Amino acid sequence: MLNPVEALASVSGASAPAIRLILSVLLAYPIGLVYRQLKGGATERNLYLAVTGLSIVVFNYGTDVCHSLLAVVVSFVCNSLLGTSSLLVPVSFAFHMGYLLTGYYFTTSDTYDIKWTMPHCVLVLRLIGLAFDLSDSRQKEKQGKADAKCITAPTPLELIAFTYFPASVLVGPQFSFLRYRRFISGAYEPHTQGAPAYAIKKFLQGVFYLVVNQVGTQYVSDAYMISEEFEQESLFMKHIHMGCWGRITLYKYISIWLLAEGAAVLYGLTYIDAKPGEREYCSDELSGCTNIKVGVFENTSKYGHYVESFNVQTNTWVANYVYKRLRFLNNRMLSHLGALLFLAVWHGFHSGYYITFLMEFTVIRMEKEVEPILAKSEKLQQLYREQPLLRALVFVVLKFYTIVWAGWCLVPFVFLSFHKWWNIYAAVRYSGFILFLGGNALLPPLLRAVLPRSVSSTTKDPSANASKDQPPQGAVQKKDI
Description:
- By secondary structure, this protein is mostly helical.
- The protein is 68% helix and 0% strand.
């Protein structure tokens, strides 16, 4: 007799691990409702979150929970023994990343599988970030610059509850231990009375995108992209289908992130306690853990908008703990490349990950070169303002560009293995390589020749004041879904 998970998998056509994942994300909502009614102190709250979070992992991966438990034990030992040592970060980083990559080596296949390595990669960033924060706190204290952002090492119970937080243990979002400790202490409670209503909003958004994804995949599926039918389409229609496929595929990640965020909101974790001028994402005080900026995503006019709006918390983590830590290179481009290389390695060994992040770097670099040239052409800007037909044409062209070429960049990320994504690229005549590699080399000088700068050369470039530590554009990600 089929168990309920297998029955749902049989009816829906999804795999049993995928059904468990969805059920676990939804299960976080009733767990959150019970949490809101708890009357005990921090110890009782931590215990409740630790037990429920561990139960979710066991439900999904059974005895493979041992991998995450080992990571927690090693993290606690490192934080205790090396808390004041300069070795804390390198030892923690080496162990957690090394263990994750070893897991990839023994479990990887030609497709994306929902295995214990999926939540483990979420855990890895969380525990490495904790090591960085502890090290930074000790450095501030040594320099006599301790502030409210300094933290002390968590107790074993705190660490387990932080690691296995039910709303984010499987798919994110990332959040700091400082945020978690403020949340568990009750500091956010006076500001989260409206959390249930906001959680319902995120839940409904997540359900909407999940339905659109499920309907869309009936027409443009992964299987279609590698089928003979796709190869027989005209070159133009291949690009149209590739763009639609990419959009539908991204909706899968958006849906699960929105559902997970809604659960985190319900607990009261997501309050933004910074000053209004310091808020990073939006003015909503409950959006502190948002992983997808739906408005920005749906109104993209350049590839940079995708990476600005997609997988926000992971991108913020990489900006804080990788990109900014590479400042010693004294070169933003190298820091950006280093951050993207880290993301590729963090995802695994498949060639598709490395090509995707390389293409992201190439596209973002092209856009950053081209945008200022167009913006500084006074005649072009005037023509754009005065001609509604030109504005309509630009809108259509930019939509085609953002949708179609986002699909192009996503192909290796989804199909992973070289022979799969290379065959799809061959079917569309390697058009993205021609556009982006050629665009980087030829488009800026061509535009400068055709559209000479017409504003005063003494006009100050607003980007000149950009901070050296300005984080890079983020990356389309798969692991922290």
